[in-house]
């Protein structure tokens, strides 16, 4: 239990795999030598917010249908424009103006029609000219070389004019310097853009350094229902890159963004700094802290970079009303540790608490079952049932699934395997 072993290889998030991004170039190397990228995610505010459409496509198909209708409408208007202006359509217009149709009109102008005209100019018409290359069956005989291979004519290369060009020197990848990081932090960013540092194609133990669709689903819930979270004290478990905590800070008062690993927490802190333009107008605050699910207490070591102070622990227990976790159940041992941590924290809270858990049901073919299964998801559901049936005389837990019918505020593919669960904890 203390030593968790992962039996899987490198994984890559569908967010980074499927969504094009204008800046998918490496920004720097992190402390452990992994390449770090910066991606920008645009928030669709009320004016351009798209509705969820069958939970299947990133744009719900509405934009595609609207563009198609506009193009077809322009095509219909263009096709009928001549008829509207001249009283007749394109074919009739030629006949009305010249007294003859297009073929006859050209024949009248040149004295002969197109075939006759070309025959008069070149001495032979098009059909006769091509007849030399046709075989006995009537088809065109392809040009072949002496070996019988197809001979493809190529265009001659054009020589570009010579001009002076600057010398290009290769850039050796190295860890970013402190001054470069500060310049990147000071870069102005639009009000509706979230900037996130992340890695790509990590081992399973480092998946928290990537952005996953479950974080987007929780962000959609927060952005579409801000009154539910306004002014609240929020705890996020397994925050990863911190995207959901950043979005939560646009409406909440205080967000405790927690995870494990010094390098991951440093990346999360960097993302909080990169998105101050989103949080400062609302007055929200994000505090990045260490919270290990395998430990039974919070780290209050004063020398720890991401340790808790006594005041923060008291504030967490006295004022927290919302707990969130985005796509953190992918290993059975970690899922057990998550629910033990959730149970322990809820029992220490003074106020009733609501927990929102997003998860993606990932389908895998297993040799053990010789069928498609979702073992991580099945274990997650089993833990939910155990929590709801728990009767310890201290806290009553209620579990329900939330239908994701709220608007989609970020561009991603909201597939039907994405689920959102709500766990309500009320002290007895």
TrEMBL record:
Keywords: Methyltransferase, S-adenosyl-L-methionine, Transferase. Residues 134-150 have a biased composition (Acidic residues). The keyword S-adenosyl-L-methionine applies. It comes from the Eukaryota. InterPro entries: Methyltransf_16 (IPR019410), METTL22 (IPR038899), SAM-dependent_MTases_sf (IPR029063). GO terms for biological process: methylation. Residues 52-168 are annotated as: Disordered. GO terms for cellular component: nucleus. GO terms for molecular function: protein methyltransferase activity. Residues 62-79, 99-133, 151-167 have a biased composition (Basic and acidic residues). This is Methyltransferase 22, Kin17 lysine. It comes from Oncorhynchus mykiss. The lineage of its organism: Eukaryota, Metazoa, Chordata, Craniata, Vertebrata.
């Amino acid at each position: 239990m203390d030593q968790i072993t992962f039996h899987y290889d490198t994984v890559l998030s569908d967010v980074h795999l499927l969504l094009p991004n204008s800046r998918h170039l490496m920004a720097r190397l992190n402390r452990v030598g992994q390449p770090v990228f910066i991606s920008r995610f645009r928030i669709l505010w009320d004016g351009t917010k798209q509705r969820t459409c069958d939970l299947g496509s990133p744009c719900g198909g509405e934009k595609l249908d609207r563009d198609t209708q506009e193009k077809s409408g322009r095509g219909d208007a263009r096709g009928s424009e001549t008829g509207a202006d001249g009283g007749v359509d394109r074919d009739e217009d030629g006949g009305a103006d010249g007294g003859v149709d297009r073929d006859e009109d050209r024949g009248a102008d040149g004295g002969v029609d197109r075939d006759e005209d070309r025959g008069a100019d070149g001495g032979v018409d098009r059909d006769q000219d091509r007849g030399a290359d046709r075989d006995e069956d009537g088809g065109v005989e392809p040009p072949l070389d002496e070996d019988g291979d197809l001979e493809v004519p190529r265009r001659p290369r054009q020589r570009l004019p010579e001009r002076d060009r600057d010398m290009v020197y290769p850039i050796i990848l190295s860890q970013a310097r402190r001054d470069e990081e500060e310049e990147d932090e000071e870069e102005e960013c639009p009000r509706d853009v979230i900037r996130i540092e992340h890695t790509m194609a990590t081992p399973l133990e480092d998946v928290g350094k990537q952005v996953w669709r479950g974080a987007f689903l929780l962000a959609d819930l927060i952005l579409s229902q801000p009154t539910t979270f306004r002014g609240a004290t929020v705890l996020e478990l397994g925050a990863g890159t911190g995207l959901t905590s950043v979005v939560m800070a646009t409406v909440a008062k205080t967000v405790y963004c927690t995870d494990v690993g010094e390098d991951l927490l440093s990346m999360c802190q960097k993302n909080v700094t990169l998105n101050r333009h989103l949080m400062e107008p609302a007055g929200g605050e994000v505090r990045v802290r260490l919270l290990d699910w395998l430990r039974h207490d919070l780290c209050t070591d004063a020398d720890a970079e991401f340790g808790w102070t006594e005041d923060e622990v008291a504030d967490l227990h006295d004022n927290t009303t919302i707990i969130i976790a985005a796509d953190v159940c992918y290993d059975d041992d970690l899922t057990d540790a998550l629910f033990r941590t959730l149970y322990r924290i809820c029992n220490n809270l003074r106020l009733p608490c609501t927990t929102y858990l997003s998860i993606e049901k990932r389908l895998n073919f297993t040799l053990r079952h010789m069928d498609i299964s979702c073992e991580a998801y099945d274990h997650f559901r089993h833990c939910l049932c155990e929590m709801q049936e728990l009767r310890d005389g201290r806290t009553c837990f209620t579990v329900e699934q939330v239908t994701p019918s709220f608007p989609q505020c970020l561009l991603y593919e909201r597939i039907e395997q994405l689920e959102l669960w709500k766990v309500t904890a009320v002290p007895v």
